Amino acid sequence: MKDWDRLITVEEMEAATASLLENGSKVGADSWQQRVKNQTPHCGFGESGTCCRICSMGPCRITKKAPRGICGCDVHGIVARNFLKFTAGGSATHSDHGREIMHTLHETREGGNYTVKDPEKLIRIAKEWGVETEGKDIYDLAHEMAEVGLMEYGKPFGTQKFLKRAPQHTQDLWAAAGLEPRAIDREVSQSLHMTHMGCSSMPEALIHQALRAGLSDGWGGSMMGTEFSDVLFGTPKPLDTTANIGVMEQDMVNIIVHGHDPSLSEMIVYYANDPEMIALAKSVGAKGINIAGVCCTANEVAMRHGIPMAGNFLSQENVVLTGACEAIVVDVQCIFPALGPLSKCFHTKFITTSPIARIPDSEFIQFSAETAGENAKAIVRAAVENFKNRRPELVNIPQQKTKARVGYSVEAIIKVLDGVANTQVDTMGTTKPLLECVTSGVLRGAVAMVGCNNPKVRPDYAHIELMKKLLENDIILIVSGCSAQAAAKAGLMDPEMAKEYCGAGLKRVCELAGIPPVLHMGSCVDISRMLILASELSKDSGLPISALPVVGCAPEWMSEKAVSIGNYVVATGLDTFLGVDPYVKGSSEVCDWLTGENGVKKWVEASYVVETDIEKLGDLMIERIEAKRAALGI
Ligand code: BF8
Ligand code: SF4
Fold first, then answer.
1. Fewer CB within 10 Å: N-end or C-end of the chain?
2. Which residue's CA is the closest to the ligand 2 atom numbered 2?
């Protein structure tokens, strides 16, 4: 065992953060911790969702004395409209990421910047979509598929192609409730149309559209993002990497990749291994180039290349505060504008690359699929040349590092678990061995834990403590996004170390399969992998998704994307447990629609639970899983 290979507690991580903040104070750095203080208490109207400013007669704020806005809209209409707008923002964002991937697919060519790394997967999806594959050059097929996929965003008629992957029962529920998403952009546009002044103010209609817009993300844009990222960069397989802030290297050029679109990070990783760049790094006195990731980009490159994960959403300032970050290179989403001024306190270059995320105090090197190679090389070069500007007196890398086994795509999960059952696997295999573990009670069920950090919840604490509690109860975890990194940072993805938290049944399964009890399924767009896994479990068991002892959970969520995810996870039939209120508590009707027996549950057999007490949230999930088991008589 190496000295760094261990479990790390939230308290230890907080102590490391405190020492980094101390580092920052030497150079006058601002911090999110300070800004939270400046912003607290938050506006009560905003927090309960009861403020409307969609027209300039307002803003209107609903109180007992003023129960309606100037147009006459009541609190339920205002809260529901805000909820739908929140969803539309998230759906647009995930789906636009998927669209960028489709454009990258369109740029692939033999020997080019981007190639097809998983041709079998491309052919499999082409067959699924009814696109002729016989005798076709793989790049011709890739370009054709890119065009067909891009049409999913704007086709005038029909519904999303990937819906056919869902179990028939789920498809029937969607059809009966009129929830099948049509073109992705149409669902986002219609959401914004419905929430325009003088359109919908009825919670039922607004929440219905929120589910449909969410579904256009999960079963549309995100699923395309995931599937075609696999085609372009390879379908993840289990591999070992490291996590936490100690992955930054004292003697090397540290380049942090942060954001979401693997089209950028893949290229940076490639050029950081370029002999010319390594020689350049040595010429400036470094031992080499170390790439590490933050946020979902970290998940993408960890899953495919074993690149270490420096941290999640609320660790993004920490990487700069180490004083050892030569460049933080970002694309889109979840990037703190604070990185601009913060980088200026150190020698760090803050490099933005996307016209979608332009941020003050950054150096902008526009990245595009056509010029990706030269852009990436320029970025790596700039970082390496910056090594000499490091101020040694400011370097403070907390020695916290864990081992993490990552890369559990659906294909990989099925493969390892089929292996346990000793069945002969010729094809992709089935989820039956996993189902047997659940039916026999060796595993009680599964929780899909996803989402962000949020200062409203003690960062990482909710993820990690909930995971430990679930593991003790023989509940396996599938995770993505910043939840995945929280687990990795704590050591919960280290198959050896994490065993200590597992109940006897789960421990046995993990030992037999050689897996950690917390399975890293990827970034947030990869929650689409979870939809496919749930669908496969449903088809292999003959049970509706809603009957499976599986629930979703986002204990520390913060973004619009997370609300869109919540909606598509619920709409797929999985009860979803939130640790932060989605600004709906101001309306009893909206709360009933989202969490009650007669709300969305009537359409999709699942609903939300919102509980800000994390201990209770865990108990509620375990109760729900046990109730589902009891209903099945297992
Ligand atoms: O998409 S979990 S903080 S990084 S939004 Fe963002 Fe939330 Fe992290 Fe990725 Ni997802
Ligand atoms: Fe006020 Fe109605 Fe305008 Fe909203 S739409 S700001 S409630 S007048």
1. N
2. 71
Distance 289 CA to ligand 1 centre (A): 26
> Does the C-beta of 258 come closer than 6 Å to ligand 1?
no
Q: How many Å apart are CA 290 and CA 582, to the nearest integer?
A: 38
Decide: helix, strand or coil at residue 383: helix
pLDDT greater than 60 at residue 427 = no
Averaged over 372-394, what is the pLDDT?
A: 97
Nearest CA to ligand 2 atom 4: 52
Helix, strand, or coil here: 578?
A: strand
Strand segments (E) across 500-572: 518-520, 550-554
Tell whether ligand 1 has an atom less than 6 A from the beta carbon of residue 294: no
DSSP state of 68: B
Kindly identify the ligand whose nearest atom is closest to the C-alpha of 556. Answer: 1
- For ligand 1, atom 6, the nearest C-alpha belongs to 334
At 270, list the tokens: 């490639």
579 CA to middle of ligand 2, Å?
Answer: 30
pLDDT of residue 370: 86
- Is 69 a pocket residue for ligand 2 (Cβ < 6 Å)? yes
DSSP 198: T
Which residue has its alpha carbon closest to ligand 1 atom 4?
295
For every residue of 169-188, DSSP letters joined together read HHHHHHHHHT----SHHHHH
Cis ω for the linkage preceding 41 (within 30 of 0): yes
**Which ligand 1 atom is at minimum distance from the Cα of 260?**
9
What is the pTM assigned to this prediction? 0.97
Ligand 2 atom 6: the closest Cα is on which residue?
58
Percent of the chain with pLDDT over 90: 96
**Which residue has a Cα nearest atom 1 of ligand 1?**
524
Instruction: Report whether pLDDT(425) > 50.
Output: no
Start-to-end CA distance of the chain, whole Å, equals 40
Amino acid at 555: P
- 551 vs 529: CA distance, rounded Å: 15
Ligand 2 nearest atom to the CA of residue 53, by list position: 6
Model pLDDT for residues 567-594, shown as the tens digit of each residue? 999 999 999 999 999 999 999 999 999 9
Q: What is the dihedral of CA 274, 280, 285, 288, to 10 degrees?
A: 0
Residue with tokens 């209107």: 60
Nearest ligand, measured from the Cα of 52: 2
What distance in Å separates the CA atoms of residue 425 and residue 507, rounded to the nearest whole number? 24
Of 106, 209, 179, whose CA–CA distance to 148 is shortest? 106
Question: Residue 541: helix, strand or coil by DSSP?
Answer: helix
